[in-house]
């Protein structure tokens, strides 16, 4: 009985074995083709992730200083940062009594204060407007850092009125006082706005707690800002640079 069953089932078993062999060979062929392309697949994914990371990094430059993109500025993507120890030493070209070296240093520092921005860049600033350039190539603008430096220079000169403004009239002196008050208030607002998180430590001097002069800060690499400003620099006092006055600006002037 068993032998008869074996003889009857044998053709079916052999056919089943052939089907299994065919399926195995088919699966093996597919797997070989898949494994042949796996290295290329992994390479493609690596390239995709690399491109995504580079794009994200490029578009997030400067976010540490501008609140994750809360404001727009065309210079942000060109800025780099560094850890810098601020010494505030009083033996450099920007400090001390009025002299030719000091005036030249401040002039060099501020010579790229006025820049040109495009119409598209102006549009990204929101509802702000500015004076158009006469050649139609853009609009007059200024980076905030240069406004701060201008104010510091102006306050320094106010400390030496007899040197810088020996012939001021009473009216001019009053106008300068208002300008200085504006500058001091602007610097106060900027200090609060930036909220520098750097820590200053203290030591004893003449039995009094005294702040240490040297401290580490997260800073913009000035050269990265300077090179961009230089590429956009314009001379605001060139009589042919600007379109003639079209309306009176209602915003407070600095």
UniProtKB/TrEMBL annotation:
InterPro entries, per the entry: UstYa-like
GO biological process terms held by the UniProt record: mycotoxin biosynthetic process
Domain of life the protein comes from: Eukaryota
Record keywords: Membrane, Transmembrane, Transmembrane helix
Transmembrane annotation, as ranges: 37-58
Sequence similarity: Belongs to the ustYa family.
Protein name stated in the entry: Tat pathway signal sequence protein
Protein species of origin: Cladonia borealis
């Amino acid at each position: 009985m068993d032998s008869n069953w074996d003889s009857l089932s044998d053709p079916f078993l052999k056919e089943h074995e052939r089907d299994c062999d065919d399926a195995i060979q088919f699966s093996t062929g597919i797997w070989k083709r898949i494994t042949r392309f796996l290295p290329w697949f992994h390479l493609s994914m690596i390239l995709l992730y690399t491109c995504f990371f580079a794009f994200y990094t490029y578009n997030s430059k400067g976010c540490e200083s501008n609140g994750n993109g809360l404001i727009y500025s065309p210079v942000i993507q060109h800025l780099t940062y560094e850890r810098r120890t601020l010494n505030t030493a009083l033996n450099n070209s920007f400090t001390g009594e009025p002299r030719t070296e000091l005036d030249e240093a401040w002039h060099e520092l501020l010579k790229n204060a006025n820049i040109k921005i495009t119409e598209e860049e102006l549009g990204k600033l929101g509802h702000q407007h500015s004076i158009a350039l006469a050649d139609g190539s853009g609009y007059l603008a200024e980076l905030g850092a240069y406004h701060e430096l201008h104010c510091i220079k102006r306050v320094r000169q106010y400390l030496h009125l007899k040197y810088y403004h020996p012939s001021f009239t009473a009216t001019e002196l009053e106008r300068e006082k208002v300008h200085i008050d504006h500058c001091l208030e602007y610097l106060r607002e900027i200090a609060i706005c930036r909220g520098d998180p750097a820590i200053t430590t203290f030591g004893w001097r003449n039995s009094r707690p005294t702040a240490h002069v040297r401290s580490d800060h997260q800073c913009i690499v000035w050269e990265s800002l300077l090179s961009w400003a230089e590429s956009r620099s314009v001379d605001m006092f060139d009589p042919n640079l600007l379109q003639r006055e079209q309306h009176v600006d209602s915003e407070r002037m600095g």
